[in-house]
Write a structure and sequence with these properties.
heterodimer, A: about 500 residues, mainly alpha, two-stranded antiparallel sheet, globular, B: about 325 residues, alpha/beta, D-Maltodextrin-Binding Protein, domain 2, about 45% helix, elongated
């Protein structure tokens, strides 16, 4: 079959000693960078781009792709160990991952993330290889109206992210939406809430809020407790590997996550991110097995599902890039730049004019995923050791790395002040008992929702029925309505029960 | 005689001191790496141009040229940084018409003055725009599209990468000259407008040649015309829009700037190095593949280009009442 021929060609290219070395270097660098909170793949690739000029194109792209996945793996490591989401897609991993670490189960959490991601990566690569062309057709069916409906679905799902009070979750989502308003409005070019500060005209950076609220907030809160009450993880570290029961719980979660991630990753513009949130939401809504830890307190499914989803999503997000030449996010845009510098125009003709490049890249994705699992699983022991460092040495290091990470995004010291401010806000959140994850989801989805809503209305010349007359959009909105009912039902039921009991 | 001797000795000392200080000032430039600020994100056309140019520039100047991306606020953050930098020749800016010809005419609150705060060193490139329509569009030439738009006033859309960008202004210039009513749909970058353009949800996009041409080459979109005054070798086979609309021209210039007060000898040194780099066949080839015409020139030519471009866009902005609000 042609697919196997092509894959054989690809593996032939990727398995050369030189390319394997480059893949390894890329993965290693990516993991190291991803572990450093805040310095994400975008900054790394931007920094290393000049170094790749001297390399042949295939090797350069393999290395850059390795950095990309490595950063994703590394991002989940910090999310689990120190409550710092290195990437937007790690925000969901933080919720259960960190709780698992606090209970001494950091090892299984990291293993779940690694293995789930590997499986999802393999599946994603297969889908990319086999179905790239027909899947882009699906992406075309998504216009602004469909994106808006999808985001409404995501936003309602965000409510599910919080395990606490429904009212507080909604409040955080709204706050996130408001923070997302800061910046330049795409439709009119007006700078909103920028208070004449030029750095705010592009909005508040995601990394800034994530680092501040999750990282600094947590540190301030830990420091505010007397020394003996602080978290000591290592005292209770149990096995490094997941138990048989963990595996039994994980496997369906990984499968579900992979499916969701593969589908949502194709959509240009944040599909992979939404995948992680969606996977977590769906996991949470499935019945808990007896004896399972509830979500939000360290359920391994809450780590495995979003990690699989975001890895599958990042694989399939290569599809619009390789078939249409449309980069779905900033990292891919840099890859397009890298390809252009090497005189390769990304697009379908890459498949025909440079087949060894296209298939070599796909084969190297699989190899990269494998390398990362081999690299990371033994490293789990080392990461655990890191937690034994006394807190008074650990937290300054975290503060420093966060600051470096934030600075590296825009080379602007203003961002560091912002992180500090959000750290204080994060501490306030912890004191008030509200969870920051819905805030981040609202922050990301809000601007996208608004942009798509207004664009859909512009295209339909003010006709609101466009959201229900277009089939795909209507079904997404219907699903959102159903989800809303499911979410509200327990609250309504419990109120009713309360009323009856009091009677 | 002793006093005269003394005076002449003193004068000789003073003279030699002066000579020595002049000698100190004539130290060879450059002595440390040069920072080339690109006020746009990495991976975009300006960034790739800067990186391609910087390698050769480094060779010609004899020091390393480091590209530093400082994106934000439509290019004004990075430009502002250079405006306020030391005029020692170690901080340079690669700017485009958005930051210096369009932006200042659109935004009353620019943090810098495009003319006063910079020293123009020289133009380095020119990128035309290209008129793209979906394959499903009924128009196969510019004239057909204009007729189509005249028959459906207000029912067609054009995409742009935002309010006040060259993409929007190119379209507005077209509308003004042809007398059309087409609705503006802004996006956060032309890459994001592509799926909607390809599937036919928007009807036209005046994208810059570097980003638009690959889609035409792959057959996903149809190109109706280029926005240069004449046919350009960068897009063979595509007629210029000025064939149908006489006098229509819209290109994005790329140019090197230094902060105000940059010494003339440094200006000519960098200008020379840039011109030499542009003539290098490898650089010229890369730029051609990018869809940018590598165009050099003297600082004086650049200054007059700046003035004429600024005037042209100011006229369109005022006539079509394009504002940032």
């Amino acid at each position: 079959m042609e697919l196997f021929d092509n894959l054989a060609l690809g593996f032939g290219v990727a398995f050369t000693f030189q390319n394997l070395i480059y893949a390894f270097i890329g993965c290693l660098l990516g993991t190291l960078i991803g572990v450093l909170p805040g310095i994400g793949p975008v900054a790394t690739i931007a920094m290393l781009l000049p170094a790749t000029y001297a390399l042949p194109p295939v090797a350069a792209l393999i290395m850059l792709a390795g950095i990309y996945y490595g950063a994703q793996y590394g991002g989940s490591t910090t999310a689990i160990l120190v409550n710092l989401p290195g990437e937007s897609s790690s925000v969901v991993t933080v919720i259960d991952g960190y709780q698992m670490a606090r209970k001494g189960r950091a090892g299984p959490a990291l293993a779940a993330a690694g293995l789930g991601s590997f499986f999802a990566g393999c599946v994603g690569t297969l889908i990319l290889a086999a179905f790239a062309a027909p899947l882009t057709e699906v992406a075309f069916k998504f216009g602004p109206a469909e994106y808006f409906s999808l985001m409404i679905l995501g936003l309602i799902g965000a409510v599910v992210l919080a395990s606490g009070s429904l009212l507080k979750a909604v409040a955080m989502i709204v706050l996130g939406l408001l923070l997302g308003l800061v910046g330049t409005d795409v439709n009119s070019g007006v700078a909103r809430f920028s208070f004449d500060v030029p750095e705010l005209t592009d909005g508040i950076g995601f990394i800034v809020i994530a680092m501040g609220v999750f990282g600094y907030g947590e540190i301030i809160s830990n420091l505010s407790k007397p020394e003996d009450e602080r978290e000591v993880f290592t005292g209770k570290v149990t096995g490094l590997f997941p138990t048989k029961e963990d595996f039994r719980n994980m496997i369906p979660a990984v499968l579900r996550g992979t499916a969701i991630g593969s589908i949502l990753g194709i959509l240009p513009g944040g599909g992979a991110l939404l995948a992680a949130f969606a996977a977590y939401t769906i996991e949470k809504k499935t019945k808990l097995r007896p004896g399972e830890v509830p979500f939000g307190q360290g359920n391994i499914r809450g780590v495995a599902a979003p990690e699989s989803a975001n890895n599958a999503g990042s694989q399939t997000s290569f599809i619009p890039l390789l078939t249409l030449g449309i980069p779905p996010n900033a990292v891919m845009a840099l890859m397009v730049g890298a390809m252009t510098i090497h005189n390769i125009q990304p697009g379908p003709q890459v498949m025909t004019s440079n087949p060894e490049l296209f298939w070599g890249l796909i084969a190297s994705m699989w190899i990269g995923n494998l390398m990362l699992v081999i690299l990371n699983l033994p490293l789990i022991g080392m990461w655990i050791k890191l937690l034994t460092v006394p807190y008074r040495w650990l937290f300054p290091a975290i503060v420093l790395f966060c600051a470096i990470g934030v600075y590296s995004t825009n080379n602007n010291t203003f961002d560091i002040w912002m992180v500090a401010a959000f750290g204080i806000i994060g501490y306030t959140f912890i004191k008030l008992g509200v969870e920051p994850a819905p805030l981040l989801l609202g922050f990301i989805l809000g601007p996208m929702m608004e942009e798509n809503l207004r664009r859909a209305l512009l295209l339909s010349r003010g006709d609101w029925t466009v959201f229900v007359t277009r089939g795909l959009s209507a079904s997404l909105l219907a699903a959102a309505a159903v989800l809303l009912v499911i979410v509200l039902l327990p609250a309504v039921k419990s109120k009713r029960e309360e009323a009856f009991v009091e009677e | 005689m002793k006093i005269n001797d003394f005076r002449s000795a003193l004068l000789a000392c003073l003279a030699s001191c002066l000579l020595a200080s002049v000698g100190v000032q004539a130290q060879p430039y450059p002595q440390k790496p040069i920072r080339l600020i690109v006020p746009f994100p990495a991976g975009g056309a300006t960034d790739i141009f800067a990186r391609t140019l910087s390698q050769k520039l480094a060779e010609k100047l004899g020091t390393s040229v480091v590209v530093d991306n400082k994106p934000g606020a439509g290019g004004t953050l990075g430009s502002d940084m250079v405006a306020k930098a030391q005029p020692d020749g170690y901080t340079l800016l690669l700017a485009t018409s958005s930051t210096h010809s369009i932006g200042p005419n659109l935004n009353p609150k620019m943090p810098y003055d495009a003319v006063r705060d910079f020293t123009p060193i020289g133009q380095v490139g020119n990128a035309p725009s290209i008129m793209l329509v979906p394959n499903s569009s009924p128009a196969k030439t510019v004239q057909e599209w204009i007729d189509y738009a005249r028959k459906n006033p207000g029912r067609l859309n054009y995409a742009s990468s935002g309010n006040g960008t060259i993409v929007q202004l190119t379209a507005e210039l077209f509308k003004a000259q042809a007398g059309l009513f087409v609705v503006h749909i802004p996006y956060k970058g032309t890459a994001l407008a592509m799926p909607d353009l390809i599937s036919g949800k928007v009807d036209v996009l005046f994208d810059s040649l570097p980003t638009g041409l690959p889609h035409v080459r792959d057959g996903r979109l149809r190109a109706l015309g280029v926005t240069t005054a004449q046919r350009t070798p960068l897009a063979p086979g595509i007629p210029p829009i000025s064939d149908v609309l006489p006098g229509y021209e819209s290109t994005t210039w790329f140019g090197l700037f230094g902060p105000q007060g940059l010494r003339p000898e440094l200006v000519s040194r960098i200008n020379l190095a840039a011109n030499q780099s542009l003539k290098d066949p490898e650089v010229a080839d890369k730029l051609q593949k990018l869809g940018i015409e590598g165009l050099g020139g003297t600082p004086a030519q650049f200054t007059s280009l700046l003035a004429s471009e600024s005037a042209k866009w100011k006229k369109i902005i005022n006539e079509r009442k394009i504002t940032l609000d």
